[in-house]
User: Fold this.
Amino acid sequence: MPQHKSAVKRVRQSERRRVRNMAKQSRMKTAIKRILGAENKDVATKELTNTISILDRMALKGLIHRNKAANLKSQLTTRVNAMS
Assistant:
């Protein structure tokens, strides 16, 4: 247990951030799964624009690295374009 007042505050802040980050991480993974599970190209294209936006925001916030966001966007775009 933390002994100093500032350390107690840091624990509270860390817990709030952890919960917030988990929710964002979950939202991002769900958006990716929607594309991978899409039945036709129209639905996947709609989901792709939404997912790219989410990935950009996650990279901007530092939740994922910007290169990882770029790689995911590239992979998902290639997947959607390959659909018929």
